[in-house]
TrEMBL record, chains A, B, C, D:
Pathway: Amino-acid biosynthesis; L-arginine biosynthesis; N(2)-acetyl-L-ornithine from L-glutamate: step 3/4. One of its GO terms (biological process) is L-arginine biosynthetic process. Keywords: Amino-acid biosynthesis, Arginine biosynthesis, Cytoplasm, NADP, Oxidoreductase. Catalyzes the NADPH-dependent reduction of N-acetyl-5-glutamyl phosphate to yield N-acetyl-L-glutamate 5-semialdehyde. It is found in: Cytoplasm. NCBIfam families: argC. Belongs to the NAGSA dehydrogenase family. Type 1 subfamily. The keyword Transcription does not apply. It holds the Pfam family Semialdhyde_dh. The active site is at 149. It comes from Fictibacillus marinisediminis. Gene3D superfamilies: Dihydrodipicolinate Reductase, domain 2, NAD(P)-binding Rossmann-like Domain. This is N-acetyl-gamma-glutamyl-phosphate reductase.
Length: 345, 345, 345, 345
C-alpha cells in the first residue's frame, strides 16, 4: 500500500514517518508539505538523514488520490476543512489528525475554535477515531477524525466509569498536564527553552478547544449533558500527557466495582494497561509507545475518585492512535507497526 | 544577633544559609548537623566555597542556647519533637521548619504522619507561621511551626475566598505540583535523574500528610469541617510549586466580588502578587523569591472557580517564609534579607 | 532462538529487552537477575507492564547453557570475569556488555579498573565488538566484548582518519559529554535530580577507564603508542553522547581528503551517517537508534580538525551495538531488530 | 545615583534590573527599550510584577544624559556602535555589554562580526572590563566594553598560567559549553524546547566571534600570537558556562607551581574560587552569583593540563561583571549589590 502524509514536517507528521517507515503493510511513503515542497525532509530534520523517499511534494488535493492509496493528514486545524473534501470525494480513505472534523455540532466548532466549521456532510461522514471505543465504526469508516491528545487520555480513563454509571458526570474535573511537544514545531515564547525549562505553566483555563471534544463523548455515554471543568499545564518535558481526573463516586458504588470495571477493560484492549492496585502511572512509562496506562484511588473521606491516565501525546495522542486506526481500517493486526515497548529510560 | 541553623545540610537549611548570610540583623551564623559534625559545609556543598563559619557543629540541645540567640530548626520531621523541648524550656525563640508541631490535634498527627506526636504543651505553644494570616500571633510567639510547602501555596490562594464565604468549602479539590527539590537532598529512585527527567510522576494520592494541615486552617476560617481532595505531582524541575485549585462558587457570588477580594488582599501584603485579570502565574516567575503569585478564572458554565497559586517551595514554602517570620518576631522590616526580585530566567 | 539476558534490570539490560522483544530471530527471552530473582520485571519497571516472560530467574552459570541458546550479559564490570567462563566452557556464544574482557593487556585492566583481570585465556578469546571495524572477527566469534559507550563514539569518529594517517595521533584530545543514564540505574548524588538538573558536571578527568580502551584501538591503527587526552562530562539529559575531538591534521592533508574519507566511510556502513558539509550533529538526532552521526571542520588557522560524533549511549553505546553484533554472529540482516528511525523529538 | 539600563528587556538587562534594584548605591533606575517603549516591563515579564519605575522609556541618546547619571547598555551588538557615541560625547560614564567595542583591531571586528566597526576613537577609549585583570584601568575608565561570557570564563581560567608562562599558548584548545539563556530572549529553532531539551548541540565551530576576543587578551599576556582552537556547545540548562581547556604544560613546570599560581590568584580576588586539589567545579555551584570557580588536573602521561572554569553566563558572564565594574568605577565595595551566595539547588 502506498501511503501519503500531509504535513510531514510537523510533530504528528514526523511521528507518522517514524512508525510507517517500518510498518509491514506500507510499501511506499509519500511526504507532502506546502511550505517546504521540493526540499528533502532530511535537510530540515537530520534525524531522518538517509531516509528513502524523503523529498517533500507539494500538496495538491486533486493529485494526491492518483499518487497514494491512503492518506494521513497532519495539516494544522483549519486547513483540513478545505483540503480534504476533494480527496474524500474520490472515495479515498483518510485519517485526519486535526480538529476540524471532530465536533459534530457546528456551533461547538465555531464557539471553541473561532473558525468557520467544515461542510456538515463531511463532518457527518467522519468517525471519531477513539480506537478502543469506536472500533467497529472505525473498521468501516472512509474517514477518521483522529482524537485530540488530551481528550484521548481523558476519555480512555473516564469512559469505563461513565458507561457503567459509577460516577457523577457533573462533578468531573480534569487537571491535564502535557509535555511541550504538544505546542508544535514552531518556536514560541512559552516554548522558548529559557522560559519553559525549570518552569510549570498553565494556559487556556476553561477555554481549551478540547473541552467540547471531551464533553461530546462523555455526554454520549451518560444521561447528562452537564459541562465539565478542564485545565491544561505545560510541563518541562518533551513528550507525555498526564490527566488527573476527579469525580464523585455515586452512592453505593464500591471500590471493588471500580476495580473490576477497570480490570475487565484493560484485559480487553492491547493498549490499555492498569497500574497495580493503589499504584499510579508516570508519563515516562509510555514514552514512545501507544499505551494508555491508568491508575486510580477511591477516597472514602471525600467520596471522590482520583483517576489518572498517561499517554505519549505524539503516539496514543496523535500518530500512534492514527496507525492503530489505520490497522483497524485495513484489516492489519491492531499492533502492526507499533512498538512493543516504550523507550525507557 | 547570633543565629543557629539546625540541619544546615538539608535543602531548607541551605536556603536559610543563603538568606541569613546577607540578613542585616544577623551578626553571626552557627551551623549544626549531627551527621556531618566537624566537617566544613563547603566541602559538601562547594557552592558555599569560602563561607565564613562553615564548620558544622554537633547538635546538643543543652548547649545551643548558650551559643546562639535565635534558632532555626530544619531537622527532619520526627526529630524536632524531641530536639526542641529542652531548647524551648530555656525560653529561646525558635522557628521549626518540620511538620512536628503544625497539627493541633494529636490524632491527626498520628494518623497522617504515623509517628508519636510531641508533648501537647509545646504543640499548644507553637504558632502556625503562615505569615500573612497569623501575623500578630507570630510577632509575639516564642515558637513558630513553619508551614509546609503545599499548604502555604494552597492556603494563600484559598483563604481570602473562604474567609469571605465565596466558595463551597466541601467542593475544594487541590491538584498540586512540585519541583523535585521538595523531595530533599537524599538520593532516591523517584528523584534519580534518568527516572525523573522528561517524566511527570504522581504520588501519595489522598494520603499526603499536608492534607490535615490544609484542612486545619480551612476549617478555622469556614463553618464546615468537610474534608478536601488533594493530590501531588513531581514535575521535572528543581524548584517551584503550582497548586491548581477548584471549587464551586456560592450562588450569587459575582466575578467582581472575587476580583475585589483578591485585589484588596494583594495590596495588603508585600509578598502576595496578583496576575492581571484573566492571567495566570507560572512557577518560574517566583524562582528564588518569597513571592506567592495568584491567578484565577470563574467559569460560568460550571459555576466553578479555578484558582492558581505559585511559590518557590524552598523560599515561600520553607526558608523564605521562615525568614519573614523571623523578621516579624524581631521587629525587622518584613522584607529584610529577602530578595526583591526572583531569579529570571 | 532462545536468548538470555543477564542483568536485565540495569539500563543496558532494559534496552536489550526492548530490542529483542521485537527481534525477528528471537523466539523466547529469559531474563536473569541475582538481586531481583523471583520477582517480575514489570513490578520494578512498569513500562514493561504486560510483558510475556517477565519473571526474573536466578543467575546460575551452570544452568544457563541448558536454558538458552545465546547469552547477553549486562552484569556490572567485575562480575562478568567470574560469571562467564563456565558458560563459555560449554561453547555457548556470549556478548558481554561489561568492561572485563575489553583490554587485552592485564596490566591496563589492573591500572585503570583497579580490579583483578580475568583469565587471559578468555580475554584472548574475546573479540572487541566494534561492529564496523571488527566485522569479520565478530561474525566468527564465540564471545564479544561489547565496547564502552565513550570509546564507541570516539573510535567511530577518529579511526577513518587514523587509518589513513591524516591526523597526528599524539595530539588527539577528546572532550566527551554524556547523558546521565550513563551513570546507571542506581541512585547517586551526582545523578540526584536537584543536583543534576540545570547543571553541567565534569568527572574522572584523565582517569576514566575508557582511556585505555580508546588507546588500544587507536594504537592498533596507527604507528604510534602515544597517550591521548580524554575527559568526561555529565549533561542534564537522559540519553546521548557527544564526543568533540581535536587533532592536528598532518601537513599536506587537504579538506577534500578528509571529506572523501568520511563520505566513503559513511557509504559503507548502515549505521554511520555524515552531516552535510560544515554541519554538525546533535545528540537528539540519534535518540533511541543505533546510528552514529559524524560532523567535522578543518580550521586552517590552527591546522586542527574538530570532529564530532554522537550516539545514543544505551543503543550504539551498549544494547544497540550488541544487537548489531548478535546479527553479525548469527547471519541475520545487520539491521534486524533495530529501529529504522530515531525517536524525535 | 540615578542609573539607566538600555535594552532592559533582554536577558542581560533583566539581570541588571535584578541586581541594581537592591544595590545600595543606586537611588533610581530608568529602563529603556526601543521596541517596547511606553509599556511596563511587568506586563512583559511578570516576575517583576510590582516593580517601582517599571515603565519602559524610549531610547534617545540625546536625552539619556539628562535623565540618568550612569548608563548600562545591553543593546544588541551592532546597535551600541551608533547609540553610545553621542552619550559618551557628553562625558557620561557607560558600561556596554555588547561586543562592539571589545576588539581593538577594526579588521578583527569586521572579520568575525561581519559588521562595520565603530569609530576607533571610542574603541580606543573603551577599557576591556575583565574585572580581575584590568582593575586599575576600569577604576579610571569613562567607558567599559564588558567582556563576553565565554571569554570571561576562558580568560579567568587561563591568564594566571599564561602570565607566568607555564603553558604553551599555541596548544590551547577550549571546549566551551553554555546554558541556553546565552542565546537570548528571542525564540529560535535551536532554543525551541522540544528541540533543545534532552539534547546537546554544537555550533559555530571555529567561527565564534568570541575567538578574537579571547586571543586579544591571551596574546597580550604571552609572547606569541598563535591562534587558539575554540568550540561552543548548547547544554539543556538555563544558565551556566563551563569551559574545559587543554594545553601543554611547558617542560620543567611542576604541578606544585601550577597549584601555587592558582591558590595565590584565588586569594587575591573575591569572586575567584579554587576547587580543592583534584576537584572540579560544576556550573550549578555558581548559579545566580558572580563567582568564577576553577579546577584543574595535570596529566603527566600527556604533559597536558586540563583546566576547567565555570561561571553563570548572565552574571559573571554579563550583568554581574558589569555591576562589579560599576562598583570599581564608582568607589563602591567590590561586592556591593552582588549576592554572597549562589542559588542552590
Amino acid at each position: 500500500m502506498n501511503v501519503g502524509i500531509v504535513g510531514a514536517t510537523g510533530f504528528g507528521g514526523l511521528e507518522l514517518v517514524r512508525l510507517l517507515q517500518q510498518h509491514p503493510g506500507v510499501k511506499k511513503l509519500t511526504l507532502y508539505s506546502s511550505s517546504k515542497k521540493g526540499e528533502s525532509i532530511e535537510t530540515i530534520y537530520p534525524h531522518l538523514n538517509g531516509i528513502k523517499e524523503g523529498k517533500l511534494e507539494d500538496i495538491d488535493p486533486y493529485k494526491i488520490p492518483e499518487q497514494v492509496d491512503f492518506l494521513f493528514s497532519s495539516a494544522p486545524t483549519g486547513v483540513s476543512a478545505s483540503l480534504l473534501p476533494p480527496i474524500l470525494e474520490r472515495g479515498m480513505k483518510v485519517i485526519d489528525l486535526a480538529g476540524d472534523f471532530r465536533l459534530k455540532k457546528s456551533e461547538d466548532y465555531q464557539q471553541w475554535y473561532k473558525k468557520e466549521p467544515p461542510d456538515p456532510k463531511w463532518v457527518d461522514l467522519a468517525v471519531y477515531g477513539l480506537s478502543e471505543w469506536n472500533t467497529d465504526l472505525i473498521k468501516n469508516a472512509q474517514m477518521i477524525a483522529n482524537p485530540g491528545c488530551y481528550p484521548t487520555a481523558a476519555l480512555l480513563g473516564l469512559l469505563p466509569l461513565i458507561k457503567k454509571s459509577l460516577i457523577e458526570v457533573s462533578t468531573i474535573i480534569i487537571d491535564a498536564k502535557s509535555g511541550i511537544s504538544g505546542a508544535g514545531a514552531v518556536p514560541s515564547v512559552s516554548a522558548h527553552f529559557p522560559f519553559a525549562n525549570d518552569n510549570l505553566q498553565i494556559y487556556k483555563v476553561n477555554q481549551h478547544q478540547h473541552i467540547p471534544e471531551i464533553e461530546q463523548m462523555v455526554h454520549h455515554y451518560s444521561e447528562t449533558n452537564k459541562p465539565i471543568t478542564f485545565s491544561t499545564h505545560l510541563v518541562p518535558m518533551t513528550r507525555g500527557i498526564m490527566n488527573t481526573m476527579y469525580a464523585e463516586v455515586k452512592e453505593g458504588v464500591s471500590s471493588k466495582e471500580i476495580e473490576e470495571t477497570y480490570i475487565e477493560y484493560a484485559e480487553q484492549h492491547d493498549f490499555i494497561r492498569l497500574s497495580p492496585s493503589q499504584g499510579f502511572p508516570s508519563t515516562r512509562q509510555v514514552y514512545g509507545s501507544n499505551f494508555c496506562d491508568i491508575g486510580w484511588s477511591f477516597d472514602h473521606r471525600t467520596q471522590r475518585i482520583t483517576a489518572v491516565s498517561v499517554i505519549d501525546n505524539l503516539m496514543k495522542g496523535a500518530a500512534g492512535q492514527a496507525v492503530h486506526n489505520f490497522n483497524l481500517m485495513n484489516g492489519f493486526p491492531e499492533t502492526a507497526g507499533l512498538p512493543a515497548s516504550p523507550v525507557f529510560p
